[in-house]
Specification:
It contains 30 helices and 12 strands. By secondary structure, it is α/β, with parallel strands linked by helices. Helix 7 crosses helix 8. It binds adenosine-5'-diphosphate (ADP) and magnesium ion (MG).
């Protein structure tokens, strides 16, 4: 039977959001104009739901707005799973300085909250939903692959997930009720998985994390527990709960989307963690806990096509990689929708001549830079043209001022850089070289860092320079700031901005290979109780020492 356990979940959500807002219980209470006891009772789960008025006040005090605030209030009433609030809050925090109301996402991926501005991917979303639906009868693990910039993250977040929330799946209309979670592996995939699942299951994240390490296949049970959390989303409420009544107990699943699955290889330093992560996901997607039980989770992995072979090295993923769904370039008709419809949604218009020109440029562009990889450049050029527009119509002139399809990213980045003081420019170089990881094969990829880490070891004025740099680049969506972390919005920036590509990254290439490896080794050493056999010696030690001495100019400090 479906049990009700939203209270713990909401308590955990409140604690997390408060921590991210860097507020004490007392500060939050004061900001919201409620009693500290009310906050404390909610966070300890003594009060399982909050009054609507209290929830509205808390949402505002936590800096939530729009859909995130609405979902927060609904979660406080026990009406939607807390996880949905987290997903919305991650993408919905006001981006400081961002031009209000651009219907284009620039280099950032579309999130669930951007679904209204997401066009041209109906067919792809339908295809993915069909695959998911069919997988319910077998192994519940789908790989969605495609080139960098093909639009995988956006398709999953803004195309697929909202449609499950609205219509369910063909083979399971009750899927509107299923809890959904989407996350990226980051450097600590097991931490991330434990946290996301524990929030839903109302379990202790630390306990789930320990289990993932010791007996990862048991994660199937945690996933099952997460499906028991009561998640009547707004659509389901309107349905009067009939969909849930029709659903056989044990049919419910957790929809678990791991986006940017390649981070498991580009960011996570440890093979042991990788294996455990894959084992846990596979177990949740394949094994029921009784003879008639369906598996607990429907797992979707979004992965960059050039990492397919690495994934297929793991026996549990070989089949799903073979049967992957490939996200390909949009057709001309679909691209036209992606260009013109968002502006219409925002009450404006893209000039016909501009739409034609954009389509022609995508069609005749260099293979590699264009084709499946054209979207980020197109998306950024449109976002910039929108910001440069002078009337309700986005024109060719606006677009040209913004730098055109292959020049807009470089033009924006360089314009921001040129507007910085020398101190800030030095900080910018350090930030961008730090945010680029380089594998031992010399392949660059976008990395993620905590804001604290970027400011580490700096005097106050330097730390302020770093903050200024982050805000300036985030305002144009070249960097993405989450609660505590910073990342390059899309790795296309690594190749599209000459200063970064030809100077900063080229100059520090060798150092970054050493440095990335050093970070990996340090993490392993720490996890193995600081066993000295994990430490560098000999020539490795010498190379690392040289690299760190060069730190200030090479941007390898912190
Ligand atoms: N349907 C779409 N319409 C317009 N722009 C899109 C669409 N899908 C993706 N984009 C843009 O393309 C770029 C790459 O999208 P993303 O989802 O991050 O791709 P991937 O995850 O495959 O690298 C982003 O700038 C995003 O805003
Ligand atoms: Mg992506």
């Amino acid at each position: 039977m479906v049990t009700e356990q939203p209270a713990l979940t909401f308590a955990a959500l409140l604690r997390k959001l408060r921590a991210e807002a860097k507020l004490t219980q007392e500060e939050l209470a004061a900001a919201a104009g409620v009693s500290p006891r009310a906050v404390s009772n909610l966070e300890r789960g003594f009060n399982r739901t909050a009054h609507k008025d209290t929830a509205v006040l808390l949402a505002a005090a936590l800096g939530l707005a729009g859909p995130a605030a609405e979902l927060f209030v609904a979660a406080a009433r026990g009406n939607v799973p807390a996880e949905q609030v987290l997903a919305a809050a991650d993408g919905a925090r006001p981006r400081p300085g961002a031009a209000a109301g651009s219907p284009y996402r620039g280099l950032a991926a579309f999130g669930e909250q951007d679904a209204a501005f997401f066009f041209g991917r109906e067919a792809a979303a339908t295809a993915v939903l069909d695959r998911m639906s069919r997988l319910l009868a077998g192994t519940g693990l789908l790989v969605v692959s495609g080139a960098s910039g093909a639009g995988k993250s956006s398709l999953l977040r803004a195309g697929v997930l909202p449609r499950i929330g609205a219509d369910g799946l063909a083979a399971a209309p009750g899927a509107v009720w299923w809890p959904r979670v989407v996350f990226t592996p980051t450097r600590a995939p097991l931490d991330e998985l434990a946290l996301r699942a524990a929030v839903l299951a109302g379990a202790d994240a630390a306990a789930v994390r320990r289990e993932l390490e010791g007996a990862p296949a048991w994660f199937a049970l945690t996933a099952r527990q997460a499906t028991l959390a009561r998640p009547p989303g707004p659509a389901a409420l309107a349905d009067g709960g009939r969909a849930a009544e029709r659903e056989q107990p044990g049919q419910r699943r957790l929809v678990l989307v791991v986006d940017q699955f390649e981070e498991l290889f580009t960011q996570c330093p440890e093979e042991g963690q990788r294996r455990a992560f894959i084992t846990a996901l596979h177990a949740a997607a394949t094994s029921g806990h009784g003879p008639d039980q369906a598996p607990a989770a429907l797992v979707v992995l979004g992965v960059r096509a050039d990492f397919e072979a690495r994934c297929a090295d793991y026996p549990q993923l070989a089949g799903p990689v073979q049967d992957r769904y490939l996200v390909t370039a949009m057709t001309e008709r679909q691209l036209r929708m992606a260009i013109t419809e968002p502006a219409k949604k925002a009450g404006a218009k893209v000039d016909d001549g501009l739409a034609d020109l954009l389509l022609a440029e995508v069609r005749t562009g260099q293979p590699g830079a264009f084709g499946a990889g054209a979207l980020p450049l197109l998306s950024h050029a449109l976002d910039q043209a929108w910001r440069h527009r002078t009337g309700p119509v986005v024109t060719l002139a606006d677009y040209e001022r913004a730098g055109g399809i292959d020049g807009a990213v470089a033009a924006t980045a360089q314009r921001i850089y040129d507007s910085l003081t020398p101190g800030q420019q030095a900080a910018a170089r350090q930030v961008f070289t730090r945010l680029t990881a380089t594998s031992s094969e010399g392949v660059d990829s976008a990395d993620r860092a905590s804001r604290a880490e970027l400011g580490e070891g700096k005097v106050a004025a330097e730390a302020r320079d770093v903050e200024t740099v982050l805000e300036a680049f985030a305002a144009e969506r070249l960097l993405t700031l989450a609660a505590n972390t910073v990342e390059i919005s899309h790795e296309v920036l690594l190749t599209a901005w000459p200063l970064l590509r030809d100077t900063w990254l080229a100059d520090t290439h060798a150092d970054r290979i050493v440095r990335t490896r050093l970070r990996t080794t340090a993490a392993e050493w720490e996890r193995h109780s600081c066993d000295p056999s994990y430490l560098y010696s000999g020539s490795l030690l010498q190379a690392a020492a040289q690299t760190t001495t060069r730190a200030p100019s090479a941007g390898v400090g912190g």
